[in-house]
């Protein structure tokens, strides 16, 4: 059963608060706004894997349209859907939001032999990677699907030289508090192959007065709840809206036979009982930003009950929730 609006709004509970690196708008940044900016964030819905993706996306949009939220924009961080005609109705749910809408390319958005250019056109993105200003802040969207020079197969995770050069130029041009968004992680060692190079560039982005420009980096992809600070910058994994992927060796059938036949990969996941998403609130006047927590539950059996283990994922990161990220955890 899809969650009610009341249930969904109840999940948007605690917040985590971080300082903006360039301080408050009152400190002299003429481009910064004194109004709060609120952006709804969701990632890894996986329309082509999970059976109730439409209901999960609808719950997110309904929550973002609610009077209580009043978000200014929404963004999905990848693994949204394959760009095939049958998924246009799914995209239409996202497009119900009347304000600015942003997309990030995930690795699974090109499953089935589709090209990145097809996914970009289907979603209506301005480009594979791009940047924009909103509410007195700067946002950079990266494409982590470039092919590394030594690629030997599988899903590539890399930022090619042209994208790295563009990122450096874009960071140099802005004087605003900047948020960097990617699907793949710039923090997890088993992800973007040249992440150390990219992180060095991010840390070096400073104003003429020596103040850091980048407030935080957000990613999806891993379906985990995890964050840590590198070079003073929070790198935050946003959890999937739908499930944690375990693999076929941990198969557990949770669906009725007919539905399971239509969505065979659900048995390899640990689904979340309700959709997970969050709200990024940026307060230029106060010189801070916050990320909302979203508690949740497993559809049993959960990974621990199935004795799931993974050498590159800490057990504490595997949760059916988005926890508030504070200085004690980052």
| Radius of gyration from the alpha-carbon trace, in angstroms | 19 Å
Biggest beta sheet attributes: 6 strands, mixed
Order of helices and strands: HEEHEHEHEEHEHEEEEHEEE
CATH topology: Purple Acid Phosphatase, chain A, domain 2
CATH second-level architecture = 4-Layer Sandwich
User: What does the overall shape look like?
Assistant: globular
CATH homologous group name:
Metallo-dependent phosphatases
- Give the CATH level 1 class: Alpha Beta
Count up the domains. Answer: 1
Helix content range: 10-25%
End-to-end span in angstroms?
35 Å
Strand content: 15-25%
Poorly predicted runs: 1-14
Q: Could you walk me through the main structural features you see in this protein, from its secondary elements to its overall organization?
A:
Strand 7 (178-182), helix 6 and strand 8 form a beta-alpha-beta unit. This protein has helices spanning 5-11, 53-65, 88-94, 116-123, 161-173, 195-204, 257-262, and strands at 15-19, 37-42, 73-76, 101-103, 130-134, 137-141, 178-182, 214-219, 226-230, 233-237, 243-245, 269-271, 278-283, 288-292. Strands 1-14-13-2-3-4 form a 6-stranded mixed beta sheet, with no helix packed on it. The radius of gyration is 19 Å and the shape is globular. The longest helix is centred in the first third of the chain and has 13 residues, at 53-65. The chain has 7 helices and 14 strands. The chain has a single domain (5-317), classed as Purple Acid Phosphatase, chain A, domain 2 (4-Layer Sandwich), CATH 3.60.21.10. By secondary structure, it is α/β, with parallel strands linked by helices.
